[in-house]
Structure formats: C-alpha cells, structure tokens
C-alpha cells in the first residue's frame, strides 16, 4: 500500500510537496540542514499537521485513521531519541506492541524477539535505558519500532549515532524489512549511504522537493552542486560508491 503526500505545505518549512512512496523499497530523504526532511517525515507519520495538502495511506486519508490503526500502519523513529521514563530495554521494546495489545501473546513475543535480534540487543533486556550509550539507545528505539511490525518504517537519521558495524547491520535490517514487503523511508545526511542503499531518493531544498528519482539521477553531481553548493564527484562502482568532495 502506498504512502503519499499531495500538495503538502507548511509555512516556512514545506512548499507544495507531492510524492508517492511504495512498499518493498527503501526511500532516502536527503537535503541540507533545514531543508524540511524531518518535517516531511513528521507529516508522513501523521505527527505534524500540514497547512495544506494531505497524506494518503493507499486511498485513505492518514488523518482519518483511528490512532491505533495509524500506529499499526506507521512506525516512526524520531531524530532525538529521548525516552520519557527510565524503563528497561525489554519494557521499551515491548511498548512497540502497544497498538496491537498483544505483548504477552506468542505472536507479540516473537515480534519482540525478532526486533531484539535485528538490533543486536541480546544481553540488554534488563538494562535501564538511562544506562545505555547513545548508539545502544538508538538501537533500542529502533527495536521498539520494529517490534510493532508496522507497514511503514519512517526513520529520522537512524544511522547518526551508530558505529560502522551497526550502521551496516541496520542497513541490512532495513533491506530485509523492505524485502518482507514493508515500506522504508529514512532521512540520511550521508549521500553515499543514500546512493548505495536506497532504491529511490527524494531531495529537498529549502522546503521544495527538487528531485524524486533513482539514486544516480537524484544525487547526480549537478544536483549536489546546486542543492548543497558543493563540488563533489562520485567514484567507485554501483553499490559501492564514495563521494569525493573537492575543497
Ligand atoms: N517547530 C518548528 N516551528 C517552526 N519552524 C520549524 C520548526 N521545526 C523546524 N522548523 C524549521 O523548518 C525548517 C525545516 O526544518 P527540518 O527540521 O524539517 O529540517 P531538516 O531538513 O530535517 O534539517 P536538519 O538536517 O538540520 O535536521 C527549518 O528552517 C527549521 O528551522
């Protein structure tokens, strides 16, 4: 089922943005600081109300869904991983089953176990969240999203706090979730990650969607020069590109 924005506008943040995201794929949302990436993700998640336009899940308005149905459909991982209560990692991840109300059922427990394994959290179950490092907490918060088995995973800079191995592992997890039929949209600053791992890239510039295409086209050197104002060159091969920035 598609997730789409139509003519979305939010004063000073987004201007007439329209895009349709498909399940089974990873969409990267890129752009300079302040371009509107987090705002767009928040609108797609139904957490931010746009001044104009609408968000559609399939042919239904996201805003018209009951909160529980919306939470089952869309899992959102915010940029800043604040946890209001100092619960254990096990309790935090189990919260992902809240929209299903089945944390104690066989299916619920299996989903939680899958999320723990996917995020490499074995051994952390009893730890209070306040004692985790930044990267460990980021993995616990992602596990909460995965435990909910949402149709859509919307993640705001999920790689930012992760070391190299856990970045690679997270990208594998997101690819597996996409292969399983979910839709994945991630905000990323690392354009090489978007180039090598996304199926599609949206580029925002000052609130305007300026590219919506396969990575090689959306992140062409000319687009990077225009949007980021940086003289950069792609080197390497498809799937293993690196971006060389000329000073
Ligand atoms: N709550 C808010 N109220 C008003 N303006 C906001 C609010 N949050 C963000 N903005 C502004 O909206 C614009 C887009 O912000 P947004 O956080 O979506 O950008 P971003 O592309 O995610 O940036 P970054 O890469 O720095 O995280 C920015 O100019 C920002 O200052």
UniProtKB/TrEMBL annotation:
Which residues are the signal sequence here?
none
The UniProt record lists the ABC transporter domain at: 3-231
Record keyword RNA-binding present: no
Please give the CDD domains that the UniProt record associates with this protein: ABC_Iron-Siderophores_B12_Hemin
Q: Which UniProt keywords apply?
A: ATP-binding, Nucleotide-binding, Translocase, Transport
Q: What SUPFAM superfamilies does the database record attribute to this sequence?
A: P-loop containing nucleoside triphosphate hydrolases (SSF52540)
Pfam families assigned to the protein according to its UniProt record, in alphabetical order: ABC_tran
Please provide, alphabetically and separated by semicolons, the GO molecular function terms listed in this UniProt record.
ATP binding; ATP hydrolysis activity
Output the superkingdom of the source species.
Bacteria
Work out whether the entry's keyword set contains Transferase. no
Task: State the protein's purpose.
Answer: Part of the ABC transporter complex HmuTUV involved in hemin import. Responsible for energy coupling to the transport system.
Instruction: Identify the PANTHER family for this entry.
Output: HEMIN IMPORT ATP-BINDING PROTEIN HMUV
**Name by which UniProt lists this protein:** ATP-binding cassette domain-containing protein
**What organism does the UniProt record list as the source?**
Aurantiacibacter arachoides
Q: Taxonomy-wise, where does this protein's organism fall, top ranks first?
A: Bacteria, Pseudomonadati, Pseudomonadota, Alphaproteobacteria, Sphingomonadales
């Amino acid at each position: 089922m598609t997730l789409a924005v139509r003519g979305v506008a939010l004063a000073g943040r987004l201007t007439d943005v329209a895009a349709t995201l498909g399940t089974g794929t990873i969409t990267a949302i890129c752009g300079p600081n302040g371009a509107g990436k987090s705002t767009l993700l928040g609108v797609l998640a139904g957490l931010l109300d746009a001044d104009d336009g609408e968000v559609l899940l399939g042919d239904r308005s996201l805003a018209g869904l009951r909160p529980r149905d919306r939470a089952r459909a869309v899992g959102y991982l915010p940029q800043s991983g604040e946890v209001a209560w100092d619960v254990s990692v096990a309790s935090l991840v189990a919260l992902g089953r809240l929209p299903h109300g089945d944390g104690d059922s066989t299916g619920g427990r299996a989903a939680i176990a899958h999320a723990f394994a996917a995020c490499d959290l074995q051994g952390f179950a009893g730890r209070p969240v306040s004692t985790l490092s930044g990267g460990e907490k980021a993995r616990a918060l992602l596990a909460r999203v995965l435990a909910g088995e949402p149709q859509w995973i919307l993640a705001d800079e999920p790689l930012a706090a992760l070391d190299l191995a856990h970045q690679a592992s997270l990208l594998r997890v997101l690819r597996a979730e996409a292969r399983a039929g979910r839709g994945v949209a991630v905000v990323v600053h690392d354009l090489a990650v978007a180039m090598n791992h996304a199926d599609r890239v949206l580029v925002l510039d000052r609130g305007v969607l300026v590219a919506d295409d396969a990575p090689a086209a959306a992140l062409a050197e000319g687009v990077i020069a225009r949007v980021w104002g940086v003289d950069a060159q792609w080197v390497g091969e498809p799937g293993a590109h690196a971006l060389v920035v000329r000073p």
